Amino acid sequence: MERDVFADATGWAARHLPSRPGPTPSALTGLLLEAADSQPGAGLLVCAFDAEVAVRAPVTAAVEEPGRVLVPGRLLADIVHSLPATTVEVAVDGDRLVLRCGSVRFTVPLMDLADYPELPRFPAPIGEVDTLGFAAAVGQVAPAAGRDETVPVLTAVRMEISGRGLILAATDRYRLAVRAIPWQPTVDDPWALAHVPAKVLAEVARTPTSASRIVIGLDLADPAGARLGLAAAGRQTIVRLIDGTFPNYRKLLPETAAYTVTAQTAALAAAVRRVAVVATRTAPLRFTFTQDQVVAEAGDGGGAQASETIPVEYSGPELSVLFNPSYLLDGLGAVEDDEATIGFVAADPAEATARPAVLTGKDSGGVRGPGGGPVDEGAFRYLLMPIRTGSAT
What we know:
DNA Polymerase III, Chain A, domain 2; alpha+beta; nine-stranded antiparallel beta sheet; 3 domains; 37% strand; elongated; single chain
């Protein structure tokens, strides 16, 4: 096989190997190589499994003798990456794998294949989605997922699958991101809910591929756990879904906004990054909105301070709110329009810190109703709770 193709496949598969030592069976730290002259368009499959996520990467190879071996995963990926860019020959000699590439020769001890669990099959396909559109939607939503493993369902992206489209939603209780995208179902009347680990979806979205479509497979009846499959250009990712009750996010999205602010997305994000330089890691920034401007401030009297005035479209009363700068930047970074709109729900300026703000692109049409509103039409919504302190009201 060609070294570049082999290196790409082993490197991608190795990223899905278990990263934590401990209770993980040592066999799962290996990469499974399956060589078969009957595999269409491949010849060799490079597989990894960490008990939750299984991946398969095809490699075009000329197979002289079919077989299956288990090899230390990260070591193999490092070796293949180091080889010169020419043809690689792989063979088994006793209990070792032999790799030859030009004048280079490596031998690697094999792992016990009997200890390796059976990889889950790819679930039955239910439809396809545009690769770029799916990647963009995941990139907008996944940052809002939680990192606290004690509440597993909040570390997931909720996928609502129906004939009308796919709705992706994620929340960590402090912010909520929602995006709907079209897709092409291949089954009649599709409807399902799937809580997919956000880090898995983000990895799929980040992986470069020449495929224009991603195949979606779903099996909710697997006795070993419900699974979702994503396949592009022959590469398969099969992930166990997360159990739990996801918050009813639709009731959180306000129907109207009492006041709206429109700003240049890039200019506002740049100002937030600059002012946040002097803020401590957990400190919020204060944003004071007045006629056609907002002042972003950070710091206190005992240390460094910063402020910047940004022109905006706003004609309401003075509003003063505190936002987590990282959360705000995640939302601004997900807005695809040149201009971003922030809608404040509270009609009383004194209550602005107690009610959520909704960030959208200006072309999304502002804040509208949950259920049948812009969520179902494909608009991006990012709901952000202001930080409440005694000095914020």
